[in-house]
Amino acid sequence: MRSGVVNRVLLALAGLVLFVLGGSVLAVGLGAPSPSWWPHSGPRDVLLSRAERTAWRDQDWWWPALIALLAVLLLIGLWWLVSVLRRRRLSEILIDTGDGSGALVRGGALRSALADDAGRLPGVAHADAHLAGRRTTPTLRAGLRLEPDASPAATLTDFTTHPLTAARDSTGLESLPTEVRLKRVKHRAERVS
After folding, report:
1. pTM for the whole thing?
2. Residues 132 and 175 placed together within one structural domain of the fold
3. Residue 82 belongs to domain spanning
4. pLDDT grade for 70, boundaries at 50, 70 and 90
5. Is 140:114 a contact under the CB 8 Å cutoff?
6. Which of 14, 42, 115, 186 is the most exposed place for a label (fewest CB within 10 A)?
7. How does pLDDT run across 11-29, given as a tens digit for each residue?
8. pLDDT in tens, 80-90
9. DSSP 39-85
């Protein structure tokens, strides 16, 4: 959750900076008076003069430093994109076996077993499960699609007493914090003739 907040704050700050800079360039270009902090005076003024563009061209360090800076910015941008797009799924769970070494259970196997068990419950048309968190303290997010005549309260009770309890008992976890999302399957209205 913390990374999501940091991501939103960074996106908001980047958007605000780009909005202010882009808006001020547009406003000055359309003839509005330039702000006090703006280095150029009017709509006919260019952002970089020829002297400013070629000032560092003769320096030996300029091009390698510029290329290194752009490469670092590209790598930071790619890292950020990958971290945003990467799915936060737990690949394995560490189970305390009591002998000090522990055992590993594949997250995919546990997700699949939970989804299969939940899909067999009465009134459930489809079920899926996602594990997140740490290897020693996993959390579960389950989605259940209910048949039109299913009772949400009864289905939730069945889910917590059967598949969720079986998963917690079989893995030896003291607790498995769970978020369950219930949706109804859409169906066509029946016609009476």
Report:
1. 0.53
2. yes
3. 50-86
4. very high
5. yes
6. 186
7. 889 889 989 888 887 887 7
8. 888 777 766 77
9. S--STT--SS-HHHHHTTTT-TTHHHHHHHHHHHHHHHHHHHHHHHH
